[in-house]
Write a structure and sequence with these properties.
Length: 98
């Protein structure tokens, strides 16, 4: 498991930590939504993206198997995605273009 040096992993029970992290890193932060047991793709968002900057109705529910990988270093998130999931990041079509 890749350890983020410039960011943090938030699980479904830590929504209270996730939103403040996004607010503190609006100028330099990125967030990737993921499923602990894998998923089709990993989408990277800017911290200011409306798709991640609001509390999701499903995020934080008991039994939810999702998480958020956040970092100020996009290259670090790319390494995390490849090391932990064997996948590259897909850019959010709403907020981000590589």
């Amino acid at each position: 498991m890749y350890v983020l040096k410039c960011g943090q992993i938030f699980d479904h029970s830590n929504i209270a930590g996730y939103i403040p992290w996004l607010r503190a890193h609006q100028n330099d932060g990125y967030s990737v939504n993921f499923r602990w047991k894998g998923g089709k793709h990993l989408v990277v968002h800017r911290a200011t993206c409306a798709h991640v900057s609001r509390t999701s109705i499903n995020y934080g529910r008991k039994g939810d198997h999702s998480g958020k990988a956040c970092s100020t270093d996009i290259q670090e998130l790319r390494r995390w995605a490849m090391d932990d999931y064997g996948k590259s990041l897909d850019p959010c079509s709403f907020c981000h273009r590589f």
